[in-house]
Design brief:
The chain is an alpha+beta fold. About 50% of the residues lie in helices and about 15% in strands. The chain has two domains: about 5-100, Alpha-Beta Plaits, CATH 3.30.70.330; about 125-190.
């Protein structure tokens, strides 16, 4: 495949891919696939690394669908309904993917990129230093928020687990009452009819 065809194929891939962000750090490849397979066939899920966070926990992903129509339907659906991950609604946003989001994008035929170092005497050097400091501050804030979010999600998961266990114990208790004949005895005592009588 020559460069032109390779780039055209990549552009088609971009059209059927959606970008989702604000995901739970607990979301996995299988969780995201299960959520989006209800809209169509998911071809691939690529998590975008968060390079500003020391633990590199992804909170965004590129989800490639089988057709551009499926991608459009997901974007429209997520504007109306909350996205559920592990039984919890998440403020996940979906948008069409852009060329720049793909780390493995092929070089556009005929495009050239020139890079250069900025000298400390260059007027843009001070702007670059400010941006560098701003990025460091943002990284520290993002890391703190992510750790707080993880703590909250672990706490909520523990609460949901306890509730599930309590409900299961209630179910076992009710099931035990039916099996040992206590329900029939109580029905007879209170002059009530049971479903099997």
């Amino acid at each position: 495949m020559d460069a032109e065809e390779n780039y055209a194929s990549f552009l088609e891939k971009v059209k059927r891919t959606i970008y989702i962000d604000n995901m739970s750090p607990a979301a996995t490849d299988s969780v995201v696939k299960a959520a989006f397979n209800q809209f169509g066939n998911v071809l691939s899920v690529h998590f975008i690394p968060n390079y500003l966070d020391p633990k590199n926990v992804p909170q965004a992903a590129l989800v490639e669908m089988e057709t551009p129509k499926q991608a459009e339907d997901i974007i429209a659906e997520m504007e109306v309904y909350p996205f559920m991950i592990l039984g919890m609604p998440r403020p996940v946003r979906a948008r069409p993917a852009k060329l720049e989001m793909f780390g493995d994008r092929p070089r556009k035929p005929g495009r050239r990129i020139l890079c250069q170092w900025i000298n400390s005497k260059n007027p843009d050097f001070e702007v670059a230093q400010k941006i560098k400091n701003l990025v460091k501050t943002h990284a520290a804030e993002a890391s703190f928020l992510l750790m707080e979010q993880l703590k909250e999600e672990e706490k909520l998961a523990a609460q949901q687990n306890e509730t599930l266990k309590a409900n299961y114990r209630k179910f076992e208790l009710i099931d035990g009452v039916n099996e040992d004949g206590t329900a029939k005895q109580l029905a007879h005592y209170y002059n009530m009819r049971t479903s099997d009588s």
